[in-house]
Every structure is written in C-alpha cells, then in structure tokens.
Amino acid sequence: MARPTIRDVAARAGVSLGTASRALSGNGSVRPATREAVLQAAKDLDYRVNSLARSLRSNHTASIGLLIPDVRNPYFSQLAHVVEQSALEHGVTTLLCNADERPEQMAMYVDVLRERRVDGVIVSPFADAEQALAGLDDDAIPTVFIDRRIPGSPTPSVTSDTSSALDEAIALMSRLGHRRVGFITGPRTTSTGIERIEQVATAADHHGVEVEWQEGDFHTESGHRAATSLLGSGVRAILASDAQTTEGALSAIVEQGIALGEGLHFIGFDGTPATALIRPSLTYVRQQVQEMAATAVDLLVRLRAGEIVTSVRLPSTLVLGGSARPAADHLTEERSCA
Amino acid sequence: MARPTIRDVAARAGVSLGTASRALSGNGSVRPATREAVLQAAKDLDYRVNSLARSLRSNHTASIGLLIPDVRNPYFSQLAHVVEQSALEHGVTTLLCNADERPEQMAMYVDVLRERRVDGVIVSPFADAEQALAGLDDDAIPTVFIDRRIPGSPTPSVTSDTSSALDEAIALMSRLGHRRVGFITGPRTTSTGIERIEQVATAADHHGVEVEWQEGDFHTESGHRAATSLLGSGVRAILASDAQTTEGALSAIVEQGIALGEGLHFIGFDGTPATALIRPSLTYVRQQVQEMAATAVDLLVRLRAGEIVTSVRLPSTLVLGGSARPAADHLTEERSCA
DNA sequence: TTGAAAGCGCTAACAA
DNA sequence: TTGTTAGCGCTTTCAA
Lengths: 338, 338
Known about the structure:
Chains A, B: This is LacI family DNA-binding transcriptional regulator. The structure is a homodimer. By secondary structure, the first copy, chain A, is an alpha/beta fold.
C-alpha cells in the first residue's frame, strides 16, 4: 500500500475518521480502549501523519523560522544549535535561514516563511531589515529579535548588555598604562555595532582613555585589516567588537609575530574554538549565547500562547586571560614561547 | 482582510479559480494579458500562496532535509551553508537537522522529514543510522549521502577520497625522518573514520612507518586527549583525522608550548578559521567541501527528476604549511616565536 | 464518547 | 485558453 492515511487507520481500528483523528492528535476525548486500538492500528500500518494536511486544517505548523546573518559564523552557529534544540523540546522544528547580511535575501526568506506558514520567527536583524520584516507583521506572525534589534521597534528582543563588560575592558587597558586604545568597530547597520561603539566611547571618557577607531563589519577580513592598521600606527592596546573581528585581528597579530600580553594587550569577543588556540589565553567579553537562544524560544512560545512578553537583556562578563591581564594576576601567567 | 486566498485574487482579476492558479504557479497556459491581470491582482492584495495547500495537492514541497551530525562543527556548518545556497538556486528550501551523532535523534528527524513530506534528503550517516534511515526508503524519498556513507548501501553518495592525500602525508612524515607516527583516529562508526584508518595503515606499510594509534571520535576533546597522550609517549609526528580532532590536538600542542614544525611535525584536516591562527601555518588535508555540497544537491535534484545517478568521489589534496614541510622548502619557513 | 459532514487553500483533470 | 469540479488528508464543528 502507498502511504497509509488516517482513513486506513480508522478502518483498521474499526472506528470513524474523527475518532481516529482525536486519538492520534490527542485533542478531544477518546475512550482509553478505543485510543489503544487506534494507536495499535497506526503502528501496524506504520502510519505517519501528513503534517501538510494537518497544518492546512488546524492553522498551525509546529515550526518556527530562524533568520540569521550566517551559520558559518561560530557565534551564530552556536545560537542556531541551541535554538533548534530548545524548539525541539517544545515539539517545534526550526527552519534555518541565512540572510547573508543581505536585505534581499532576508526579504526572500521572509516570503518563504510566510508561505510555509511558520508559527513564529526569531530574527537577528540589520539595517533595512525593517521593511523586509514588515511582511511578518502583515501576517501577524509572532516575532522575537535575538542578539540584535531594531531601535524603536515594538518587537520583543533578547540581547546581551555589554556595557559593563566593555567598561571593565577599557578600565583594564587604562590600568595597564594605555592612554590610547584601538577599537575595531562593528557596522553601524546593526544595533550591536552601534551600541558597542557608544559603550566604548562612554567608558573611554570615563577612564580618560583615547580611542583609535577602526571601522569593521563583523567579518574576519575587516578584523585583520583593522588590526594591521592599528599595529602600524603604534597602538598597543586593541579591542575587537565580535567573534569574527576577534579571529581576524588575532590572525594579523599572529602573522606579525607580536607577543600577546607583553608587547600588545588584546581583548576579544566571545570564546570561539579558534581562540582556544591562542597563547597566552584570550581576555574576552563573554556573552550568554545559550541563555539568549533558549530565552528567545521561550519568549516566542509564550507570545504564541497569547501572553504579553517583555524584552530580555542578559549581562555579559569580562573573562580574563593572558592577552590582557591586571598586573596582580601576573604571577599565574604562563607563556608558551618568545 | 485576513490573508487573501487565491479565490480573492481570481475574483479581483475577474477570472476563475483555475486560471488564477495557472497564472500564479506557471503551470498550464494562460493568455499573457490574463496572466498580467492575475499577477497585478495578487500584488494589489499582497497575496502569498499557501504552500501547505499547494503541497498537499501537488504532492511536492520544494524542500529538502539536511541531516548532519552537528552545525557547530565548522566543517559541517560550511557544508550546510553551501547546501542551503545551492538548493535555493533550484528554488528549494532546506530543513537543517542536527542528529548530534545520536541515532535516536536521527530517527526522530527522519520522522519529522517524512511528516513534512520533503522532496529529498541529504544525510551524513553513522553506524546504526541505517535503521533510522529505512523510513525514507519506505516513503520512497530520494536520498543522497554526503561526506560519509553506509558501505554496501545502494544510496548514491558524494564523498572525498583522502587516500592519496593521506599517503602523501605519511610519505612526508617518513621523509622528515620519522619511524613512528601518531594517528588520532575517527570513530569506527563512520565510513570516514574507518577509511582513514585503513588508508593510513596502507600508507604506513608502504613507507615503512610504524603507526601509534590513538582512538578519537571526531570531537575536540578526544583530539586534545589523544595528542596529550601521544606527546607523553614521545611521538614527534602526529596526524589528525578531521577538523575537530585537529583543533583539539592543536590546543594540546599549544598548551604544552611545543614548537610546531621543529620539535613536532603535525598534519591536520580541513582548513578551518581556527587553524588560521596557528604559527607556523598548518599542513593539512584539504577536502573539497563546497563542491561536495553543491554536487549533493545536484545529485538529489536529478534523482528527483527520475535520472539514474552514480556516486561521486572528490579528490583531496595535501596543503603544505610550516607544521610539517619537506626540507627543500625550509628556506621559505617563517616562525613567529621560539 | 463517537460519527457524520464540512471545509482548510490549493492543483489537476476534464469540458467547453 | 478558460471555467468547473473533485479532492489532497486532515481537524473540527455539530448531533446523536
């Protein structure tokens, strides 16, 4: 037999279509014995529900969309993994969509998600994303922002608050004797890019430090370029603004054979696998990626249930490694070479 | 108005339901003027097809499933990205599923993919996956193996042939004067794990080298553990079997402060972002990940079209870096410290 | 608790 | 080329 339908199951169990549906979906009451019979018949036939038909009728798909800039970015691939697993715990599958930081591709995916009638969307937006995202609103698809948000938007968001960690970072650089600190920025097209620029500016003011701004775009290449330029102009204290610029900056530093923590103090963002290969170890801003992802799913589920939810802001911390460490801790420092 | 349906579009364009459907889906002939009118009406109404209804009726979903061990593995996240983009070029969306190397989770996802009636599946299998995957066969869902395969299975696969690269690697170690080479294996539950063990064994025989086998499981932790153990027993030539064990082994080497390329020769697998931070640069086996992913999508599309396809095996190469380089090239070597 | 019947939005025959 | 109609497989009223 071709794929058995619920009709076949009902027939085999000797009940009506409706009863079989109630037993299988768990909605509506069924006498235990009847339910058993239906379940057994389904098993005998190796029946599998057609989610297309179910969703068409019931008006929900048990699926959400996750719209991120790029899975290959280790920060987002971790995010994607936790979102997927958290959603699974709610019986919901995730449609992963890579916008590639391109508004057109984001718009295209928004269309796909609308057509597929997903129950909700978790998105990490960027400039010009607002218009692309408007379609979700038109269809009243619950949406949650993750990592980044659109200022002024009523959409609830789960983001991390990096202000105190960045203040600590600048304070540390100041304490290490630096009057000039290089900062590799993120793009002004993202909320995180803008925020971190402002936070660093404020902290620098506060600690009497001058910032050497270097434009970056959250890609490794720009991190590499910016770090090279900063090193060329004699800066000996560098801060990166995300995981990828951190990797890029480190590769430039490593290339030039500069001793981290001695000739140069460096503070990165997010502890990715790559940064584990650095000696001395990396001082970096740690964001709560896992919590962020799990919280976003939770918010979306509650939004879908009709609850009113508010945005969540998770604190981040400065993790001390050898690449920039307060003098007092210097004894514990170990260096592999140089 | 709530979501407009194709009825609304037809009414506005002054045509019948069927005509509107033909104009919108592109199947069947429609007079150009009529088509224009329908498209205009659809645009006016901001109509979006309900893919659930379309798929239910037409019996295809324009979606495929991608079943991989873990997106966080940089090797697979790259694979996932290319698969997604290649599929998009065919107008097909990708459902990304992380099996987490667990048969139950793979079985669960196979169920999900069956219920969602995907048009095809690309999967990177492991031991005990065969039974979980049987469900795809029951539903006659076209399947292609990627990176790994199940020996003896009729399912077409796209894999890389690492034999000559690994032979070169062993030859290089031999030429560098090593009689003993440590090899961090992959799990015997994967075809790649088994193959690489055999290929290394053959090459070692061939070049008169003895292999110090260290069990690994394609995770960073095991790479770290294995490398530590090998270094402890005095081995000074190490080979890893995949991207993750490479990262793990490197972190162990870096931790111990051992000078790569001098006190120790190391050859890794796959050039991930992390390995770009290593000095001297890494000697590694490069697989054609992008081609692999694109080819798998192509195979699946052709399979779906009823073509008979055959498995593809892509050659891989040994990329020379400073971590293990033939003596002749030694002049070009640059070291950052030590 | 169960059955009968309607219909979700669309495509694909079939006729005209 | 177009309109009409049946029906994909399921859930969900409504009665019984």
